[in-house]
Amino acid sequence: MMDSRFVSEILFKYVTGSTNDDAIRLARSGMPEGTLILADYQTNGRGRLGRRWVAPPGTSVLMSLILRPILPLEKIGALNLAASVAVAMTVSKMIGMKAMIKWPNDILVKGRKVAGILIETGLDLSGRPFSALGIGINVNMSEDDFPIDIRPKATSLSELAGRYLDRLELIDLFLSEFEPRYKEINSGEWLTLLSEYRQLSWTLGKQVRLITDGCRIGGLALDIGEQGELLVRLPDGRLERAFSGESSIDC
């Protein structure tokens, strides 16, 4: 398992605070691209916008990958495209059900969240940029493992598939899906990847409400731009480009 040539080193911890915190610390000290940090349990796991990521020991994929993409900072959103599509394809192949992407990078099956992605960037001690790609996937969690308030919105792959799943097999599959897409964005041409993201989008064509840069906006989600930004047509006809934030769907 995990024989991907892309992975240069694997660090496993039974318990850690956050795999992304570990990845950031190691990347700053100069650890190479392809360093993979895995944990069985996180005491301070987090998702986007500072939310806690809760998963009992031994139930989930909790991983972070150190990357050093050949991309200018203003185009780093392409990394989110690659990671989101790779996770969605991994989930789909693992359980035989279509996974979709809720902008910007929540992975849903049947409208319920099964995975999330957190990308953080920085500079190491020699001034080289890095990205810490954090991924959490609900693999073998039961309904009772989820906090009561998110049970209607989240589920696990085993609950959907009706069987126990091998977490290492899932990680291997993700690496095989991610590596070619990562090479694509480093080549500077990711039109194929962008097309994949659009086809997997759960958000496009829906009325959405966004919280971005502290502002609330609403409108029709029209398209995904080249940097992964969401293009929204506002009620007054203007186009808004949201590069980060949180989205929800108006039912």
Give an overview in words:
The structure is a single chain. The protein is of the alpha+beta class and 251 residues long. Helix content is 25%, strand content 33%. The chain has 5 helices and 12 strands. It has a 7-stranded mixed beta sheet, with helices on both faces. Helix 2 packs across helix 5. The model has no long low-confidence stretch (mean pLDDT 91).
The dominant shape is globular
Sketch the major β-sheet.
Answer: 7 strands, mixed
- Report the structural category: alpha+beta
Question: Alpha-carbon distance between the termini?
Answer: 42 Å
Mean pLDDT: 91
Task: Report strand %.
Answer: 25-35%
Helical percent range?
Answer: 25-40%
Q: Helical region count?
A: 5
Please give the number of β-strands: 12
- Reading the helices and strands in chain order gives EHEEHEEEEHHHEEEEE
Estimated radius of gyration? 17 Å
Q: Identify low-pLDDT runs.
A: none
Order of strands in the sheet with most strands: 1-2-3-7-6-5-4
